[in-house]
């Protein structure tokens, strides 16, 4: 799969690959989607099936992943129909302050301060997008995109930005946490159900194999000041 999300996180743009014998695919390709719809639980659906180009790997060929995190800061709480995908934050949020703070994290950094460390795993990532918008009154949605994410990374970034949005911390605090390189108890990891994997981006077909090979190489810590 393109992304291994935390337990409880939603995904509407997940991508996966599966090795299937060519004769089996040729015989069943017109019926397999319908059969999967009957076999899978109600909260999982396969929307499209197709043969993969040569060199394709759902995880390692990806250029970026884009997530959304939904927060309701309306004092009366979220719409009951979206309560399972929206965090209720009972304090008003200043998304201008949150967006100003978020720019410090854009680019390639060591995000150890926002990740749960795993033995032997790099915490260096390139954050391509981190911005908040208000699509409706009382609703704030974060769009977060990166080449890849560490465990808990998006949820910790959102948790830190909420502390800035409610005025608990100044905008410059996020940059200080990033530079510190260590997890801090003041950075909350927000609940998983507000987060959704929305989209995965891939290069042109003739670049898929090269991208997968490059991604598999261990990323080193970027030079100081980068």
Structure characterization notes:
The chain has 6 helices and 7 strands, in the order βααββαβββααβα. The longest helix has 13 residues, at 153-165. The two termini are 31 Å apart. It has 226 residues and is α/β, with parallel strands linked by helices. β5 and β6 form a beta hairpin. Strands 1, 2, 3, 4, 5, 6 and 7 form a 7-stranded mixed β-sheet that branches.
CATH architecture of the domain at 64-200: 2-Layer Sandwich
Task: State the share of residues found in helices, binned by percent.
Answer: 10-25%
- How much is the average pLDDT? 91
- SSE-based structural type: alpha/beta
List the helices and strands and how they pair.
Blueprint: E1 10-11, H1 22-28, H2 32-39, E2 64-72, E3 87-88, H3 95-102, E4 107-110, E5 124-136, E6 139-146, H4 153-165, H5 173-180, E7 195-201, H6 208-216
Parallel strand pairs: 1-7, 2-3
Antiparallel strand pairs: 2-6, 2-7, 4-5, 5-6
Helix pairs in contact: 3-4
């Amino acid at each position: 799969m393109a992304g291994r999300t935390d337990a409880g996180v939603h995904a509407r743009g997940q991508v996966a690959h599966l090795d299937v014998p060519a004769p089996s695919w040729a015989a069943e390709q017109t019926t397999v989607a319908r059969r999967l719809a009957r076999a899978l639980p109600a909260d999982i659906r396969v929307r499209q099936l197709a043969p993969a180009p040569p060199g394709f790997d759902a995880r390692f060929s990806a250029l970026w992943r884009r997530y959304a995190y939904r927060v309701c800061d309306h004092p009366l709480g979220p719409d009951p129909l979206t309560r399972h995908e929206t965090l209720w934050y009972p304090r008003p949020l200043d998304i201008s302050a949150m967006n100003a703070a978020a720019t410090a994290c854009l680019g390639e950094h060591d995000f150890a301060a926002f990740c749960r460390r795993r033995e032997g795993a790099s915490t260096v990532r390139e954050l391509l997008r981190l911005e908040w918008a208000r699509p409706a009154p009382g609703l704030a949605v974060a769009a977060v995109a990166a080449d890849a994410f560490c465990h808990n990374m998006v949820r910790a970034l959102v948790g830190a930005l909420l502390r800035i949005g409610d005025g608990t911390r100044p905008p410059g605090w996020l940059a200080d946490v990033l530079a510190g390189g260590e997890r801090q108890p003041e950075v909350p990891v927000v609940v998983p159900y507000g987060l959704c994997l929305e989209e995965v981006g891939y290069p042109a077909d003739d670049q898929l194999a090269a991208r997968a090979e490059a991604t598999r190489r261990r990323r080193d810590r970027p030079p100081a000041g980068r």
